[in-house]
């Protein structure tokens, strides 16, 4: 069994693999590197075998998405720790050791992420994880270093090692034993919000999620689905509701879901005003998909869900759009996160 397995899930991503795999191999300190291929159509596997023979290949028979793809691939990899790494991530020298060291020092840590900066603007944090993920009481995710579309420059303001609510799926180290103990990713999510659901389930069992500032990677983002893709809108809205339903305490479940449905409707009306009809239709489809999913989600629901730390107890939507607070640290003026 390997101590660490670095696993890159790939779907038609040869251009990213060609650019970033050399750095992964050079800077990963001898740890095993895998490419798990989600039935790509672009000859990715043949090209990896030809150009990077040190990389181990796992071929999947169809595109299982992020969630199912990783579940299928990781089941075939014996390792103490998995590092899930997006194909569009540039790693840096010594990026693995700080993550591994944190996990060994903190036995309650189930998962951890590095500092995530933007590949195309390396002075700034990147949307998908920045300096660690958080969530407000209505289920809206945000990050230290990123509120909605506002990306902060990295000025050392988040160079402290600390607990967070969720760690980015773009670069995530997780204990394999705990990954399987909670059943891995929810394969029905396909993609988007899956890491938040995973981390919330871990926190509901008393484990911790951490941010490690001593490891830095650069992420392109949007390599699979563009930001404005209605499929992405559908997955984000549906999976957000599913995450809330599965993990919220019973006492706040109905009120929170109802509030989110209303706010989603308002979001749909705003998109109509911008002429984005396809995205509005995607939100409607997401709601009906969520309703049809409820019987299955009920079986998955953590009936012992309780209050967990790092949830922002106010509305980040209100703070950002109404009160004009654009930086994470400004949220502390109203209420402490955690």
Global morphology:
globular
Taking the sheet with the most strands, its summary is: 10 strands, mixed
Secondary-structure element series: EHEHEHEEHEEEEEEEEHHEHHHEH
Q: Report the span from N to C terminus.
A: 37 Å
Helix content: 25-40%
Uncertain ranges: none
The total beta strand count reads: 15
Number of helices: 10
- What does the radius of gyration come to? 19 Å
Residue-averaged pLDDT:
94
What fraction of the residues are assigned to beta strands by DSSP?
Answer: 15-25%
Query: Structural class of the helix and strand makeup?
Result: alpha/beta
Topology:
Layout: E1 2-10, H1 14-27, E2 32-37, H2 44-51, E3 56-59, H3 65-74, E4 79-86, E5 89-91, H4 96-105, E6 109-118, E7 121-125, E8 133-136, E9 141-143, E10 146-147, E11 150-151, E12 162-164, E13 171-175, H5 176-181, H6 194-204, E14 208-219, H7 230-247, H8 250-273, H9 277-300, E15 311-312, H10 316-322
Parallel strand pairs: 1-2, 1-4, 2-3, 6-14, 8-15
Antiparallel strand pairs: 4-13, 5-14, 6-7, 6-13, 8-9, 10-11, 12-14
Helix pairs in contact: 6-7, 7-8, 7-9, 8-9
